[in-house]
Amino acid sequence: MRAAVPFPRLLILRPVNTPQCRRLHTVKASQTATEPSKLQTNRSACSEILRIRKSLLSRERTAVEVAEEYLTRLQQTEPYVKSFLYVSDKVLADAEEIDRRLRRNEDVGPLVGVPVAVKDNLCTRDMPSTGGSRILEGYRPPFDATAVTKLRQSGALLIGKTNLDEFGMGSTTEGSAFQVTSNPWDSSRVPGGSSGGSSAAVAARQCAVSLGSDTGGSIRQPASFCGVVGMKPTYGRVSRFGLMAYASSLDVIGCLGSSVMDAAILLGAMAGHDKLDATSSKTEVPDYAAKLVPIEALDSKPLKGIKIGVIRETMGDGVDSGVISSIQASALRLEELGAALTEVSLSSFPLGLPAYYVLAPSEASSNLARYDGIRYGSQVPADDLESMYGSSRSNGFGQEVKRRILMGTYALSAGYYDAYYKRAQQVRTLIQRDFSKALDGNDILISPAAPTAAYKIGDKVNDPLSMYAGDIMTVNVNLAGLPALVVPCGFVKVGERDLPVGLQMISAAFEEGRLLQVGHIFQQTLQNLSFEAPLPNK
Hints:
11 strands; 34% helix; globular
């Protein structure tokens, strides 16, 4: 190991500003007049952030004790999971400083003492930031990404940097230059990617929450594979300053956690306009967490008035039957909670994948030009400048990164620009229009987060087209710039193991609050489903 919108019909009962995690129990009859026994709290919906914060503010535990708990768990599981590329040597010292502030009764942020892992394509001034690439091995940036700065200001305890596919280019985390991360549910399987280290770290309880990035599904697909919650915000909702660029018009920083409440708190802490990122939005950031209602404050139809569209193209050929069954059961559960279900068609949906794999590599071929051994990256000695450029990039980049640079350069080259890049941009416009039309008549659209559950490590290493096809459920959302939330919703039986499946919820731009509210209600009512990953098998 390397040392958003009001919801007058949704929130129908008494307001609750500080919802807490409660044990599994039936709602008391005095709290609601209609069928209270149908609404029960699911343990997986419990907020780890609120648990830690409550224990610190009540002096039940110290920040050092919390840090030691997670470091012990990390030490026990890391040999099998391999989520981290670097674990901070300052964790306990930072925790001691938090304890001193608490003893002095100083104001502390919403993430005080919460162990947070950071994907290694986000710059951190006190830890290496490699992007999972040999070309940046040992690189220590002189600044923090804006998202990281905001987490520090909120009191977070940064525990380390997590593994990823090199520069975010991959769907398995096998593309890392340093190690392959395993899925905590079955260490012979991939955790997804490219934020596989971040999702596996949450699933293995090595950290409370983590940061990831999402260019074509890199938060949502790993969230589904690892049975955790993944939040991809609207493009521009979170500053990209300090994120190593893959495809600048698609890249988004988001979060992973065990509960929707944790995702809401983490997103609220890092969202907002940033003068260092010209693409960040000035749209007001609501208090996402304050609007999440605990189950005992709701009647039996808390989603009455919410319209949900099931995307037809995501429920057919090429999707595992067990995944379809889990999504169908989730749709029925949402309907039982009062939502009105319809089927919607996105005619441009099948075009999203080929368009994405023209646009994203095209942007990557430009963005990665800076890694040449002089401006950035490890330098390989050579007789002349041109040879040094070639040798540094050839030795520094992995196979998948080289493949995508070549794809992008080809698509942008003279004679092919109109046939590929320009046409892909036209498809992107069609996708945006289709989503806009579908969301005119629906509050939320739902689909699987991935067409299958986690597959075996090595299964798709030599078949990149098969790996690319696994992004079919997610890339369209990035092309449209919309927010999406993945909530674990069921399991697929594979051999003797139950592997998690995630439900993807999509809403209009800057309506993360709506997603989080519906997702929170849904997660709380998943009775008899536990998404706590077992210890990794040896």
